Amino acid sequence: MPMNAMIECVPNISEGRRSEVIEAIVAAVRAVSGIRYLDTSSDADHNRSVLSFIGNESSLRQAILALYRESARWIDLRHHKGEHPRMGAVDVVPFIPIQNVTMAECVQLSRDVAADVQAAFGVPVILYEEAASAPHRRNLADIRKGEFEGMAHKLQTAHWQPDFGQAVPHPALGVSAIGAREALIAYNVYLNTNNLAVAQAIAKAVRGSSGGLAHVKGLGFLIEERNQVQVSMNLVNFRKNPIYRVQELIRIEAARYGVSVAGAELVGLIPQDALLESAAYYLQLEGYSRDMILENRIQSVEGAEGDGL
Amino acid sequence: MPMNAMIECVPNISEGRRSEVIEAIVAAVRAVSGIRYLDTSSDADHNRSVLSFIGNESSLRQAILALYRESARWIDLRHHKGEHPRMGAVDVVPFIPIQNVTMAECVQLSRDVAADVQAAFGVPVILYEEAASAPHRRNLADIRKGEFEGMAHKLQTAHWQPDFGQAVPHPALGVSAIGAREALIAYNVYLNTNNLAVAQAIAKAVRGSSGGLAHVKGLGFLIEERNQVQVSMNLVNFRKNPIYRVQELIRIEAARYGVSVAGAELVGLIPQDALLESAAYYLQLEGYSRDMILENRIQSVEGAEGDGL
User: Which of A41, A151, A307, B41 is deepest in the core (most CB within 10 A)?
Assistant: First the structure.
């Protein structure tokens, strides 16, 4: 993997209430050389925090060891309560390719990190998403079913042997899912109606689980302060199901009810490519590539200079 | 101006044939510390080259001095022939704000550079575009009218006194235009017809000079190998006349003839914002900002670390 590989890591830890604990864990990650720390988002009801940072292979391996070391000092799942399902103190560790790195390299990194974690802390690891060792082990919700309390039994079953470590959860740290995936885009489309049934029917038409686009998850909600309904989605692979296709499919389905799209919103960060590819679609750009973007050209010049080329 | 200001400079020099001359001039610019060199594009018919590089205020001032020094060694306009209008060995020097810098700061830089050039080489300078000292001096084509051969007379007239230096062209280097402007986007839209009159009528409807969008220049052409016509444009201020507005206006005008948009193409580099803002329009994104782009967030973290914050 090239030294200038840029990989995002978005671990979820089972602590969202004790700010001194969250700060100590974040500080341990930040202290690792080569890590660029982006964001922490904590939820007290869920009792869970989502960390976000960037690094190359070497710095991320160190950062995850530091993350587990500090989490092990503070988190004991035997005493953890929260609304969000969880099975580990460090519950899930996804690696996301950003620049100068392939998905296959992120899969390899997730396997190396899983081996590190098992060796250093004795936490059994199930590989998930692109790193999964079998199709039924891709989906995080399926892996986590039964939660921490059910893992001692679940790991013994033929389908759920861990990929790394013995089939026995760590007493305090439980089990971790480690893997690789595309960036997830949280995307909501508002409709010019307050009829919840319309949003629910459209969500059902577009989401993969009910026969729509394979990499879209979606639900319909009524947003009272707008007096509009919302199709709330996670786009889990924007390369295979680009935003424009999702949006235009919603537009077409809404037309059946005489309803139009009122607006849309992104929640959190989005990779540049996801929006640029939608621009290229709507503008009918021929021969478009991300190298045509001035800032990307500048960065590739910088990268080349950084390597002494 | 912050140290991490990122400004593009795209000087046009009056040499597009002698490769050893072009290489020597490019090498002089590249040798300046802090310059990231992007591109050289030479045209033998025009006998002209366009250089493109990035730097901050300090490195760009040095780079332009190096550019003139090396150009003065090789180029004498008294012996220059080419199709493209020109008035100086270094004909035009625009500064374009890219990141962490305002247009006002680029205008100030262009004034400082003009003073440098006049002091070091005795070349009279007319400020243009955003740096122009009067409205009739904004447009490069108006400034250059009369070309090198007519400048001795033109500079004597009340309207065309140079902003820096005496009203006498340099014998070999002529006169330079130095200024600041937004990034220029070369953008072509193809139509599903081979009727040239349609493209010409649409170009007339959208371009500023005939009453259309103020910051659009455009002409209609027949592209024989596609058997389609093209509206060929320069978008000289994509913030005031965004791409989607230009494209949708063309679509509306084409509909009058029963003609549709067959495709579009970018020529050269385009700032990220120009495409992202079109994506935000078509997707009806509410509350969109460039900080939502993952890569931009990473870069702002890097910038902050680079400053030791």
Answer: A151
